[in-house]
Structure to design on (530 residues):
């Protein structure tokens, strides 16, 4: 059993050196090649001054180059922090500064952007360009300039030794920090250790039945926690991680054609992608007999669309996995053939080595169907906490309400659940103002905080609008300091400067005043019901 995430790669390379480890955009790397290339990155990072425990940013889409970079960062004893390449500069700058990145790993195309970003972070020593054999290296190494930080080109990295390195971390050290939407208006960093992640990785590889013959794909970007499965569970089984081309991700038919061409056997995504595939993918046109397992997580799968998918693609196993970023996956449910469409899909029962329980408003444990409570989680997969936010951490990592003798904390998910007749948990909704959009968690407060940065906006309220395909859309209702000073387009343009695309409101309404409750608060319930 591996005790560090990058040991999964070392072990796989020793067992299956010539098996394909990653296939992306025509580039195929074996496990031996991936292991050796990541050793080069690790040595280059150490030469740049990266120390164990340092945070290393990764500014690149999922690709062979970025996977090499991630494993290299881990081998150097660092904690990797994925940066969304599509996020606005303000958000990227905040994450880079908040986490205190020492080095940013970028692909060739994003090296100039990474250099400009690193120049704004006090601790940053520079940028390392990650590539693959045969990469055309246009970046030049050099000292920091006014335009950006020093850049170490791929040619210099590739010249490093490929020999194995000693371990620079232990299992309780941080492996990665994933930034999620924060209620204060700024994203918060979820700290996951090697032990936390490996608890999920080893369970998930077994639950999906992964083997070295599998070709695995999750279209989730690196900053989304679903990516942990295909990055590391694939490696645990010496399976091949296959990267869906960005262009194909936009069109359901293109996804279906790619699944056929690449002979994908295990797929893991948010339900909204699968809904589009079921409705518009033309599944009957393609030979998808090799798809044996379909896993979905991150949001509720509308039953009628799951039924449509299972009708169009009846032979795979269908697994519903549930868990906030803070817990990895903590419950699972396998959908029986022919059962979809009858009602909500359960989130199931606790994963191995994990305990979950619901607590009612009266402090009792949910034990009967119909009782409603907040779900709590206990187990080794729980996060270490929120980076730099001990008070916020203490709000959600709490002592067990039933077992005072437990030394480890339990996690309050904020999700409301009940039980079905078979003892499976059913997800009912959020206790607070967090919603899911395309599988991403979105704090309405963060969107409102961005709106309030607009100089002409006096008041703002954001409410979710349920959408069967996306989970939710966002509706923003705002008022202006001066009538006529505000336009819908200017509000949207402003939001795009501060928020990733999935958090930008779909609907903007400009009113003279917001509705109020009898206590003078904004009537959000009234807005939501309009």
């Amino acid at each position: 059993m591996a005790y560090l995430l990058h040991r999964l790669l070392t072990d796989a390379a020793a067992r299956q050196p010539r098996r394909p480890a990653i296939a992306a955009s025509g580039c195929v790397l074996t496990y031996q090649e991936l292991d050796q290339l990541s050793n080069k990155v690790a040595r280059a990072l150490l030469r740049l001054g990266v120390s164990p425990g340092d945070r290393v940013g990764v500014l690149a889409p999922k690709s062979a180059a970025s996977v090499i970079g991630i494993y290299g960062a881990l081998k150097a004893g660092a904690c990797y922090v994925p940066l969304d390449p599509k996020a606005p500069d303000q958000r990227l700058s905040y994450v880079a500064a908040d986490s205190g990145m020492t080095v940013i790993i970028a692909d060739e195309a994003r090296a100039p952007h990474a250099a400009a970003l690193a120049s704004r972070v006090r601790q940053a020593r520079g940028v390392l360009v990650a590539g693959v054999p045969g990469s055309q290296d246009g970046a030049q190494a050099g000292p920091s300039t006014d335009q950006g930080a020093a850049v170490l080109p791929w040619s210099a990295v590739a010249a490093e030794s490929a020999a194995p390195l000693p371990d620079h971390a232990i299992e309780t050290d941080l492996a990665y920090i994933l930034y999620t939407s924060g209620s204060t208006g700024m994203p918060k960093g979820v700290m996951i250790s090697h032990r936390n992640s490996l608890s999920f990785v080893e369970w998930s590889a077994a639950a999906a039945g992964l083997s070295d013959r599998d070709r695995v794909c999750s279209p989730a970007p690196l900053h989304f926690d679903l990516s942990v499965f295909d990055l590391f569970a694939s490696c645990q089984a010496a399976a091949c991680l296959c990267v869906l081309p960005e262009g194909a991700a936009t069109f359901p038919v293109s996804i279906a054609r790619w699944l056929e061409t690449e002979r994908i056997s295990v797929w893991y995504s948010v339900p909204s992608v699968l809904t589009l595939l079921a409705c518009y993918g033309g599944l009957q046109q393609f030979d998808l007999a090799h798809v044996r397992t379909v896993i979905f997580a991150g949001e509720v799968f509308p039953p009628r669309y799951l039924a449509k998918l299972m009708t169009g693609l009846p032979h795979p196993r269908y697994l519903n996995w549930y868990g906030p970023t803070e817990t990895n996956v903590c419950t699972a449910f396998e959908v029986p053939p022919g059962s979809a469409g009858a009602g909500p899909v359960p989130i199931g029962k606790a994963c191995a080595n994990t305990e979950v329980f619901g607590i009612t408003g009266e402090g009792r444990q949910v034990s009967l169907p119909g009782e409603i409570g907040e779900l709590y989680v206990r187990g080794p997969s729980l996060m270490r906490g929120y980076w730099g936010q001990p008070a916020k951490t203490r709000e959600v990592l709490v002592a067990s309400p039933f077992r005072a003798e437990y030394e480890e904390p339990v996690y309050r998910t904020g999700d409301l659940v009940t039980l079905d007749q078979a003892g499976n948990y059913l997800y009912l909704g959020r206790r607070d103002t967090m919603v899911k959009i395309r599988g991403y968690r979105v704090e309405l407060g963060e969107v409102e905080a961005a709106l309030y940065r607009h100089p002409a906006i006096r008041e703002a309220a954001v409410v979710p609008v349920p959408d069967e395909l996306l989970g939710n859309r966002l509706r923003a209702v705002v008022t202006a300091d001066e009538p006529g000073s505000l336009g819908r387009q200017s509000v949207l343009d402003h939001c795009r400067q501060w928020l990733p695309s999935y958090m930008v409101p779909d609907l903007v309404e400009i009113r003279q005043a917001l509705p109020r409750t009898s206590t003078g608060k904004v009537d959000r319930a009234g807005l939501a019901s309009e």
